[in-house]
Specification:
By secondary structure, the chain is an all-alpha fold. It is 55% helix and 0% strand. The protein has five helices and no strands. The radius of gyration is 26 Å and the shape is elongated. The model has no long low-confidence stretch (mean pLDDT 75).
């Protein structure tokens, strides 16, 4: 990460901690106060647009949560759907085991 990126990141964290809106001007003010040189205005603009309308504190606390997990099957509505959902992964595992390797076909990588 370059010095400009680090400076913008830290400045954004400072603004978020003080619950101040993150704008390019405010980022640039903090960067200048920290005596960081050679930060082009494009960096502050990119950071402010990327973080616009987002709660930075929530982003930091949810870093390792993943968020892409599948939803659990509903508890009500019949057990048939839940049983079918459990059988589907088992069927996929069996299909993967049935695939033939090159060695089973009579030739290998170095033949």
């Amino acid at each position: 990460m370059s010095t400009a990126e680090l400076a913008c990141s830290y400045a954004a964290l400072i603004l978020a901690d003080e619950e101040i809106e993150i704008t390019p001007d405010k980022l640039q003010t903090i960067i200048k106060a920290a005596n960081v040189e050679d930060v082009e205005p494009i960096w502050t603009s990119l950071y402010s647009k990327a973080l616009d309308g987002k709660n930075v504190k929530d982003l930091l606390t949810n870093v390792g949560s993943g968020g892409g997990a599948a939803a659990a099957a509903p508890a009500t509505g019949g057990g048939g759907a839940a049983a079918a959902a459990e059988e589907a992964p088992k069927e996929e595992a069996k299909e993967e085991e049935k695939e033939e390797s090159d060695e089973d076909m009579g030739f290998g990588l170095f033949d």
